[in-house]
């Protein structure tokens, strides 16, 4: 028997006719499926004063929120992690029930009206963002949203709100002023979006358009091209617009120029990593340069490393951590601090900045068959090997070996055959019976022939005949190998 409860003192409930109809339908389903267990009846609702309350069923009820409020609605404002965890536990197994009775806040209704966002999506975002409810829907939210809609599509505006709602909603008037200024500068929609995503909150509260104009003029004086000024610098790092060019930005630029960085390279660095212009000299830039000097680099080389890897100077864990792993790999290969300093003195710095160096090159050399001692000798003799990719190293080694084989065939072959043909092989053989490669491969042909007691003309004629015979033999061998492969495949159509 279904037990119906009255909500409150005088609220009406559904009559017995509904319950009887529900019972008839349930019995009918049971008859059609005699082997299936009857499901629990759905929750029913009685209404009083416009509020919906679930009727009791046989399932155990979840712990109620304080005062009977919807836990989802309480999560919109609750910031305490422990209290939020308790509210989330109340949602276990009853999310759909609470979601069906969820009442959107004024902020959610405003966003839904202005940006046409699905209510369920807004609910999920609202319960994850307790700070949203502190903004007044009409005085702050709606003006800011309409300001953003004047320059960006609605989808971009909603994306911005989910990422930077506190900065964008706190000062709607200042937001309008900055967007008007960007429009006057001819900044495109994509750059405006990047600007709003990266702009700190202080820009809207403390920044002035006059100061921003001075910074833009200073950036232009560096030689930054107009197409890069906003896309790569000002909109990518709006915090620059809060700085004073004379007292903040110019000293950093002067320090970088003192490291041997040219004016063109400085503008390129500003486009690549504008944050470098915000890095404190004594706190980041100078310790980075001093660490490179301690490794054996000069100030100019420190500038080269900074240009190649500016992110290394901006690390929060210090300059030593930027190169620690690379130096450890070199030390494991037998290249200690003294060898590293020697490589730097010889002008090699790319192994400190190139992606994958030096680990990939060291592993590739070992994979090509060199033992640890040979790897150490190769690296110290030619540090440029450390920045080569494994595939390039393999190609270089293959080419080198092919050249050596070709050289041996072209030089040693004719000389040894000439000595054998004249019965003088004893003069090109060592005491252990092996060929004397030094006698066969070094020196000009005239000296080799004179050592054998023959004439150069005789040797030249013999070598011409030898090369013809050798070429014919190689061609015949290649043809025989090709025929053998075709026979293995069963597609040989020749005779024999």
UniProtKB/TrEMBL annotation:
Family to which the UniProt record says this protein belongs: Belongs to the mTERF family.
GO BP terms: DNA-templated transcription termination
tRNA processing as UniProt keyword: no
Keywords: Transcription, Transcription regulation, Transcription termination, Transit peptide
Amino acid composition bias (Basic residues), ranges on this chain: 29-39
Protein name: Uncharacterized protein
Phylogenetic classification of the source organism: Eukaryota, Viridiplantae, Chlorophyta, core chlorophytes, Chlorophyceae
One Gene Ontology molecular-function label: nucleic acid binding
Classification via Gene3D superfamilies: Transcription termination factor 3, mitochondrial (1.25.70.10)
Region of interest called Disordered, as start-end residue ranges on this chain: 27-67
InterPro entries membership: MTERF, MTERF_sf
Top-level taxon of the source organism: Eukaryota
Keyword Transcription: yes
SMART domains assigned to the protein according to its UniProt record, in alphabetical order: Mterf (SM00733)
Compositional bias (Low complexity): 52-67
PANTHER family, A to Z: CGI-12 PROTEIN-RELATED, MITOCHONDRIAL TRANSCRIPTION TERMINATION FACTOR FAMILY PROTEIN
């Amino acid at each position: 028997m279904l037990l119906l409860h009255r909500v409150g003192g005088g609220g009406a409930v559904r009559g017995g006719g509904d319950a009887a109809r529900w019972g008839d339908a349930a019995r009918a389903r049971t008859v059609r499926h005699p082997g299936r267990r009857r499901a629990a009846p759905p929750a029913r609702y009685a209404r009083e004063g416009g509020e919906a309350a679930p009727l009791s069923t046989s399932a155990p009820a979840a712990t109620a929120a304080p005062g009977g409020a919807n836990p989802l609605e309480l999560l919109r404002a609750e910031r305490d992690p422990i209290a939020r965890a308790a509210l989330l536990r109340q949602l276990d197994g009853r999310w759909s029930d609470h979601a069906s009775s969820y009442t959107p806040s004024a902020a959610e209704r405003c966003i839904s009206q202005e940006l046409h966002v699905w209510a369920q999506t807004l609910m999920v975002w609202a319960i994850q963002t307790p700070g949203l409810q502190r903004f007044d829907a009409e005085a702050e939210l709606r003006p800011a949203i309409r300001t953003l809609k004047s320059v960006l599509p609605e989808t971009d505006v909603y994306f911005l709100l989910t990422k930077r709602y506190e900065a964008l909603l706190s000062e709607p008037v200042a937001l309008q002023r900055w967007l008007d200024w960007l429009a006057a500068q001819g900044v495109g929609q994509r750059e405006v979006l990047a600007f709003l995503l990266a702009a700190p909150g202080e820009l809207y509260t403390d920044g002035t358009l006059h100061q921003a104009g001075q910074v833009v003029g200073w950036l232009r004086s560096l030689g930054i091209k107009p197409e890069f000024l906003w896309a790569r610098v000002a909109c990518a790092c709006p915090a620059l617009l809060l700085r004073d060019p004379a007292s903040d930005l110019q000293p950093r630029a002067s320090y970088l120029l003192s490291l041997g960085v040219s004016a063109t390279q400085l503008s390129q660095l500003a486009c690549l990593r504008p944050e470098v212009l915000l890095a404190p000299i004594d706190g980041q830039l100078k310790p980075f340069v001093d660490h490179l000097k301690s490794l054996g680099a000069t100030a100019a080389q420190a500038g080269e490393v900074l240009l190649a890897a500016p992110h290394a100077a901006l690390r929060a864990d210090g300059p030593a951590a930027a190169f620690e792993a690379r130096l450890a790999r070199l030390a494991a290969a037998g290249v200690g601090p003294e060898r590293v300093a020697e490589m730097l003195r010889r002008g090699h710095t790319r192994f400190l900045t190139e992606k994958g160096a030096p680990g990939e090159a060291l592993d590739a050399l070992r994979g090509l068959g060199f033992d640890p001692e040979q790897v150490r000798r190769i690296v110290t003799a030619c540090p440029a090997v450390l920045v080569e990719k494994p595939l390039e190293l393999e190609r270089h080694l293959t080419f080198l070996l092919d050249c050596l084989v070709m050289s041996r065939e072209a030089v040693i072959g004719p000389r040894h055959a000439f000595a054998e043909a004249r019965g003088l092989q004893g003069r090109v053989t060592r005491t252990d019976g092996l060929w004397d490669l030094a006698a066969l491969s070094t020196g000009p042909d005239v000296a080799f022939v004179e050592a054998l007691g023959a004439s150069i003309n005789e040797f030249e004629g013999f070598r011409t005949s030898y090369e013809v015979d050798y070429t014919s033999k190689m061609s015949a061998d290649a043809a025989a190998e090709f025929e053998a492969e075709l026979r293995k495949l069963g597609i040989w159509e020749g005779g024999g």
